Amino acid sequence: MILDGHIHILNGTDDRSVFQSKLRAASIDGGIVLSLPPPSFPQLAPRMPASIRLNGVLDWCQGDKNLYPFFWIDPLESHALRQVADAVRLGIRGFKVISDRFDPGDPRAMKIYRTIAAAGRPILFHSGILWDGKPSSVHTRPLNFEALMEVGGLRFALAHIGWPWCEELIAVYGKLLNAHSLRRDQVAEMFIDLTPGTPAIRREEALTLLFKIGYDVASNVFFGADCRAGDYHGKWVKDWIRRDNRIYRKLGLKADVLRRIYADNLLRFIHGGAASRNLPRPDAVEEAPRKPKRS
Asked: Residue 179: helix, strand or coil by DSSP?
């Protein structure tokens, strides 16, 4: 099984059957589907009410147990708390946030994160440089997310390995990992979304640093592609999986770690639970490292 932790609803077809057939053609079994953006992102989609965006992503995922709807929320909107309550009540599995005009630790936003954490839902954040045509990446540098440490019970993921600040993101992960081990119930748990981000020429460098730095990362990283549901680019996704798997073989990652990267960790991010939770065991993924032959 391979789950894609980063699928956008933006443009393209609205036909769910086309989306699902393109997923199957790419050997993707499901993943996180992100709603249309809030009104603060007019460059990405027409402005529309939260209720329409919420019902839209729920409709995209309806009837498919492997598709998990996430609601893209602007935590600075005046009705953000009501949006969280409505989303949780209707069955949303998590939330998406891009802090393009505020720091992640803004007190107004932290109030929303605490509400989401109390509801047992995770948050997927954009991290790293943001191609939005305006000076915003000062807010999305990985170091700024250190503030989320104090949101006890929150599960959050930083996408794109924080490109180009991959080393900074990994350092923040190490700090939160240490703090979480010392006072687990009071500190957020951080995950790393491997979605590019990182250009192909720097991918091996970033993944090598991540998996060889010495931190315990095997249960807190997951695969994502950043494709659009309406036009899921299967060949591009397969190319990234092949590229990553070549790197994983060079790094000597075992099949059980690959199962976590491609499915188990995303399920734990969504559902919660300890790293050792007995989740469904996905099948081996394409190009998994082979055991050496006995001499």
From this structure: helix
CATH class assigned to 3-271:
alpha beta
**What gap in Å lies between CA 173 and CA 171, rounded to an integer?**
5
Burial of 226 (0-12, 13-18, 19+ CB in 10 A): buried
H helix or E strand, kind and range, residue 4: strand 3-8
Q: What is the pLDDT of residue 277?
A: 38
Segments of the chain scoring below 50 in pLDDT: 276-295
* Gap between the Cα atoms of 168 and 53, Å rounded: 33
Token digits for 134? 């305006």
How many other β-carbons are positioned within 10 Å of the β-carbon of residue 113? 24
The alpha helices in the chain, defined as continuous H runs, are 16-25, 50-61, 80-90, 107-118, 137-140, 166-182, 200-212, 234-251, 255-259, 265-271
* Cβ(115)–Cβ(229) below 8 Å: no
Q: What distance in Å separates the CA atoms of residue 42 and residue 14, rounded to the nearest whole number?
A: 19
Tell me the whole-structure pTM to 2 decimals.
0.91
- The Cα–Cα gap between 246 and 244 comes to 5
Q: Are 240 and 225 in contact (CB under 8 A)?
A: yes
**Is the CB of residue 80 less than 8 Å from the CB of residue 73?**
yes
Per-residue confidence (pLDDT) for residue 273, from 0 to 100: 81
- Residue boundaries of the structural domains of the chain: 3-271
Q: Which residues of 169-188 are buried (b: 16+ CB within 10 A; e: fewer)?
A: bbbbbbebbebbeeeeeebb
Give the Cα separation of 176 and 226 in Å (integer). Answer: 25
